[in-house]
Structure formats: structure tokens, C-alpha cells
Amino acid sequence: MVAGRAARRTGRARRTGRAPRPRRARPRPRPRVPGGVTGVRSPGRHAEGEPGVEDVVAEVIRQWRAIHPGLDTAPLAVIGRITRCAALLQQAEEGPLSREGLVRAEFDVLTALRRLGPGVTPTRLARETFSSGAAVTKRVRRLQERGLVERRPDERDRRVQHLALTEDGRVLIDRIMPDQVGYESALLSGLPEERRDELAGALAELLVVLEGRLGGLIG
Fold it and tell me: Which residues lie in coiled coils (predicted)?
């Protein structure tokens, strides 16, 4: 069949005196990149230091460069991607936390109380979870209503509250912690182990910098 089509094209070319046009090659499918996102590697379209994988943030950066050519978009490449990753993780509707009716912020409270043990003050809990005092109060109230957290006034100063997990709270966190770690491991499975180690190290450095500059503003 292919030979027949080629012969017909050659015959038409002889009658018209024109050479047959070459067939167009089919475009290759875009490769799959870590995380299941379709992307293309095009070093010529990225500024030096930017990753070669297309994502939403890369498009945002190009748009801002078109609007404001003199704008330094390097911070967007880092902060923009961290912010989007955090938003995706916060909005995830599947996983152990959602099945237990918990959100990430409440899970962080429970894990902090499990790690620190009984007698934690709301102020200490706010520092541990990088949250405001008002946010911690609201989360503790919801968890207390579920019977997972309890408050006890200080014996010497009843204005001071001490927080602890109830027995139900301890059982819950011990049960779902392995499942949650396994779920998070699955989310990172698209990255090779060495890349995960590199990313963890880079994020640790950034965290130290941000804690030194912004840590005092939270609480």
C-alpha cells in the first residue's frame, strides 16, 4: 500500500513537472517527567539556572518577562515552585489524613504533641508548628471537641494551659503515622533517591535561612 502511494505521487510529479513533496514526520510524544506531568526539555527556552522541565511556573516566569523585561524572576523559580507544591499537597483529597477527617494543620498539632509529650503550652506548640497563637487555639479546640486533645490549667498559674494527647489521640496518631509516611513516599516516587536527597538538603538550607529571617514574625 505504501509503495502504491509512492508510485502515484511519482506519476503526478512526472505529469506536472514538479518534484514530489517529502512527507512530514510525525511529531514525537512529549516525555513523561517526574510526578506524572507531561513536559518538554528545551534548554533554549530557559534562562541559565532554570530547570529544563516545563511546568506552570515556567510559563508564569515567561509571562512576567514579557510584561516586565527588566524584572529579576529568579526568586519566582524557587518560591513559586515551593508555593505551588505546598498548595497541591494541602489540596490533596486522598490519603490517610482525609480518611480520618483531618487536615494537615491538625495533623501537625497531633504529631507535635506526640513528639513533645504532655504538658506543652500553646505558645510552644505555635513555635513547633510555625503557626500563630490564634490558629493554634482554633485547631486545638476542634481536636478537643473530637476527644483527641485535652487541656489542663497550670497548678501555679491557672491562666497557663498545658496540652496533651488523650488516649484516643495517641492511638490515632500512632496508627496513621506509618500510613501517612507511606503516602508521602508514594508522592515522591517519581524522583530518584539521589534527587530526593539533593532536594532535601537544598530545602534544609533554605529553611535555616528563612527561619533566621522570618521565624520571629510568626507567633
Answer: none
pTM, whole model, 2 decimals? 0.69
Residue type, 156: R
DSSP-derived 3-state class of residue 161: strand
- Rounded to the nearest 10 degrees, what angle do helices 104-116 and 122-129 cross at? 120
144 near 150, Cβ under 8 Å?
A: yes
Burial category of 55 from C-beta neighbours within 10 Å (exposed 0-12, middle 13-18, buried 19 and up)? middle
Residue 68 lies in a domain: yes
Q: Distance of alpha carbon 79 from its chain centroid, rounded?
A: 12
In terms of residue numbers, what domain contains 75? 54-91
172 lies in some domain: yes
In which element (H, E) is residue 39 found?
none
- pLDDT, one tens digit per residue, over 52-94 is 678 999 999 999 999 999 999 999 999 999 999 998 888 776 7
Rounded Cα distance, 98 and 183, in Å? 12
CA distance 7 to 45: 42
